[in-house]
Automatic annotation (TrEMBL):
Pfam families: PqqF-like_C_4. Keywords: Metal-binding. Residues 91-189 form the Coenzyme PQQ synthesis protein F-like C-terminal lobe domain. InterPro entries: Metalloenz_LuxS/M16, Peptidase_M16, PqqF-like_C_4. GO terms for molecular function: metal ion binding. The lineage of its organism: Eukaryota, Metazoa, Ecdysozoa, Arthropoda, Hexapoda. This is Coenzyme PQQ synthesis protein F-like C-terminal lobe domain-containing protein. It comes from the Eukaryota.
Amino acid sequence: MKSLYVKSLVQGNVSLDVATETVTKFVNSLHCTQLPDNSYPKFRVAQVPKGEKCCRIQGFSENDSNSIITNYYQSGPFTVRTSVIIEIIMLIIEEPLFDILRTKEQLGYHVYCSIRDTFGILGYTVTVNAQATKHSTSYVDNRIEEFLKHTRELLVDTTERELSQIKEDLVKTKQCIDVHLKEEVDRNWSEIISDDYLFDRLKREIDAIRNINIDEIRNWWS
């Protein structure tokens, strides 16, 4: 290749001079020129149209009745505060979600919800691993939608005291110290390849968590 755009991360017990020298030697060994700024690939994410869109894919094995139903709900561009709000909501609904869809309705053996950050576009998903011999994918989809209609009630019923406990637990999780250098490297490298470069992401998230109240969370969902 004549032109390249190189991203690198040097982390550990190494000085700035040594890190710079090492990367420079590597780049020079490639014998390439710098990729022009207008040629650098940009990540683009499609905006999901309002309303319901469905994509169904037939399984590879005709004898396998297992199906995975994932409902994705797109929010908008990333902000630390919005990402924290969605994360807290997922923590509030995850237990009722499992209790209703998995334990009571027996829709599938694996039921969970999670926040999604797709190249800077936030959203969340609800996933159910079901068996087509017991429930159709359309039925499971409808039950997921029905559950989410009651999320507002779950948020209304959540007290400030309960929220404080959720926030405290979440902060503790984000304050966990890296045991191995690889954990810190993986986190920082993820920031680089995603073009986010929020190397203090955890600190920003913790600050946002501590300043969020239940009314703000309810208003976001509404």
